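Postdoc handover notes: sequence design on the structure in folder B. Input tokens:
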């Protein structure tokens, strides 16, 4: 990085620290670092791309040199004045690219303030909010292409907005449902208008007309995704598919299936997946039974069960229609890696299977699994979206792993579960020892049910101290399971299973109540931190449960620790709930900061009170210099955003001294105390540790 003339060593250290964080978060937006006078010291790839300038052309230049002239020079003085008062600046800026085109960005500019309270520069994080003229032209071209596709669709298509008004309808829809031109004389009608028109021309029985209209409107408003058939008065059969979209709008597709109804072999359709046209589970079982009955060697077949990684989140984000398109694309790509004798099956949802007939060796079976996993290495193009996914595979070999179809499917599924627990994007063979592991897991689940019923959980508390005074300022509540045979079991062993089997919500509720009750016995200046699970967070009664649990303590003494996985789910609803709880006085901490992918955007969207530094940055066993740089960057970022930094896993005086020198405010770890039972914890309060 090239520095501006006269840059101080102290600032260079701060800039290097900020640049390390900016580089780690390169994919999150347009990032730059500047000195106190606004001269650019560092830019990331997104900044280079949008400005159309090389790093060499940007380094040393003032940010104002990119101005399009839209704001005038006064805005740069306002920004610098705000930053020199150690205040973050947020607003829209219109800049000019090298080719003269303009682009607008939503900017958040953070002052980099040293421990000596001097402004050392600032970190800028930007998000593009206006398309360039070229992008608009491209969008118009895509819109024209989309219109061509809609009109060329083999069936009828109608798109409704969230109020069930029609946004568009292709010509085939009007033809299939025999809508006259007069119906559209005053523009596109609403869904209710169409239903009433159908009723008036006799498509529904008069005595049931109003009830049917109301029922169909309610179904559409509730976002249901019906698939049904209807016979038209003229005798034709229409298949109707409704697809709600994440925006609240709705797509309806109508297909003429008269030819399908005339097919003599209806049983053939029952053995095919209607979306992909692949054989379904019924046909797979028939083929397995046939292969096992005719097997002449020790290895008759290998059954590969495939699970598409991250499909559920993609389907939720893009909608069911594009999700279905992705499944069809997956099926087409997988077909290319199979022999004619092998069978590709869609089991349902995002699950596929491959039946490999008469493989010659284990190596050949493994080779197919590797080819299938490699087939997912290239992204899929779905509409205007580029989607990167993977797959995980579990393999069972017949007849050694099962003498019938059901047993083989169960064992392949067990191997799949095991492979996913090891790491996604892998494959694994069924082992007979898996039955023992499955039995152990079942025993843990049954034990958790019993523990909830019989109060066999305990809470231990790990003190959190002020790094300067070493006095306890708060405690983190950590659950332990008091098992009748194994003794105390740590949370890391049973919480993942509790999440999988749906018990985590009940366990989290118990932790919240017990921790708040214990905190009511502590000094009033000591707070309690409780981890909150995604399952618990999305409980509609969460706010009521929290206020009820904390009725005997001030809500400001309750800190809820939030993980990145929780923030990734339904971010708008999550932010609304966080804001509601914050207004009640509850505080929040973001846990294990720096170990995820999108933490900076979360800090930008919600004002957390504390930022916890993961113990991997504290211990610094490997790559000490990089860990130290990232640690200092997190502490500095927390300071600039008004958040208290908390270091986890402090075990030595040397680590504590280093954290203190770097400006970290609070810490927890074995140096001060392990997590201890409540009675032991209370003895620690009167005196410094």
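Designed sequence:
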């Amino acid at each position: 990085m090239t520095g501006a003339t006269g840059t101080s060593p102290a600032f260079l250290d701060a800039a290097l620290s900020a640049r390390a964080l900016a580089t780690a978060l390169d994919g999150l937006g347009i990032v730059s670092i500047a000195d106190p006078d606004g001269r650019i010291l560092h830019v990331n790839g997104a900044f280079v791309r949008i400005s159309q300038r090389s790093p060499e052309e940007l380094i040393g230049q003032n940010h104002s040199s990119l101005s399009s002239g839209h704001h005038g020079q006064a805005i740069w003085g306002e920004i610098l004045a705000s930053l020199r008062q150690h205040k973050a600046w947020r607003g829209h800026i219109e800049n000019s690219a090298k080719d003269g085109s303009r682009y607008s960005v939503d900017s958040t500019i953070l002052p980099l303030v040293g421990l000596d309270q001097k402004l050392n520069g600032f970190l800028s994080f930007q998000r593009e909010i206006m398309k360039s003229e070229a992008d608009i032209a491209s969008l118009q071209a895509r819109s024209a292409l989309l219109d061509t596709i809609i009109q060329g669709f083999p069936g009828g298509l109608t798109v409704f907005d969230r109020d069930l008004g029609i946004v568009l309808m292709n010509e085939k829809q009007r033809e299939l449902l025999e809508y006259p031109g007069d119906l559209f004389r005053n523009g596109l009608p609403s869904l209710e208008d169409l239903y009433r028109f159908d009723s008036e021309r006799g498509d529904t029985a008069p005595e049931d007309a109003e009830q049917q209209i109301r029922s169909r409107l309610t179904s559409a408003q509730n976002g249901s995704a019906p698939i049904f058939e209807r016979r038209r008065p003229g005798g034709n059969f229409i298949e109707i598919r409704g697809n709600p979209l994440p925006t609240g709008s709705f797509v309806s597709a109508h297909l003429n299936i008269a030819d399908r109804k005339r097919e003599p072999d209806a049983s053939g359709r029952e053995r095919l997946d209607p979306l992909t046209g692949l054989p379904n589970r019924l046909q797979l079982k028939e083929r397995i039974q046939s292969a096992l009955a005719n097997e002449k060697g020790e290895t008759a077949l290998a059954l590969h069960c495939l699970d598409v990684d991250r499909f559920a989140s993609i389907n939720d984000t893009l909608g069911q229609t594009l999700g279905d398109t992705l499944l069809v694309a997956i099926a087409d790509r997988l077909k290319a890696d199979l022999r004619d004798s092998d069978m590709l099956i869609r089991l349902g949802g995002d699950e596929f299977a491959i039946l490999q007939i008469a493989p010659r060796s284990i190596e050949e079976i493994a080779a197919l699994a590797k080819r299938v996993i490699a087939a997912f290495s290239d992204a899929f193009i779905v509409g205007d979206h580029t989607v990167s996914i993977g797959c995980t595979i579990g393999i069972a070999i017949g007849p050694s792993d099962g003498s019938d179809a059901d047993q083989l499917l169960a064992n392949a599924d067990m191997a799949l579960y095991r492979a996913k627990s090891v790491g996604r994007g892998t494959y694994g063979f069924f082992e007979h020892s898996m039955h023992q592991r499955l039995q152990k897991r079942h025993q843990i689940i049954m034990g958790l049910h019993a523990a909830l019923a019989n109060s066999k959980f305990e809470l231990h508390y790990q003190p959190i101290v002020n790094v300067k005074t070493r006095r306890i300022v708060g405690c983190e509540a950590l659950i332990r399971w008091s098992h009748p045979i194994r003794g105390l079991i740590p949370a890391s062993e049973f919480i993942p299973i509790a999440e999988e089997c749906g018990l985590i919500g009940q366990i989290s509720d118990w932790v919240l109540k017990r921790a708040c009750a214990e905190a009511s016995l502590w000094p009033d200046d000591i707070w309690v931190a409780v981890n909150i699970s995604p399952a618990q967070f999305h409980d509609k009664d969460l706010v009521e449960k929290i206020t009820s649990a904390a009725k005997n303590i001030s809500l400001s003494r309750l800190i809820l620790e939030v993980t990145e996985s929780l923030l990734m789910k339904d971010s708008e609803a999550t932010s609304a709930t966080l804001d509601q709880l914050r207004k009640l006085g509850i505080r929040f901490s973001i846990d294990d900061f720096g170990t995820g992918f999108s933490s900076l955007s979360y800090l930008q969207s919600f004002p957390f009170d504390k930022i916890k530094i993961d113990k991997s940055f504290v211990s610094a066993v490997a790559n000490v210099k990089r860990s130290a740089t990232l640690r200092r960057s997190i502490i500095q970022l927390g300071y600039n955003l008004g958040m208290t930094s908390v270091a986890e896993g402090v075990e030595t005086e040397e680590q504590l001294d280093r954290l203190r020198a770097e400006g970290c405010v609070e810490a927890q770890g074995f140096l001060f105390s392990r997590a201890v039972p409540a009675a032991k914890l209370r003895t620690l309060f009167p005196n410094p540790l």
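Context for whoever picks this up: Residues 145-261 form a domain with the Beta-Lactamase fold (CATH 3.30.450.20). Don't rerun without checking with the PI first.
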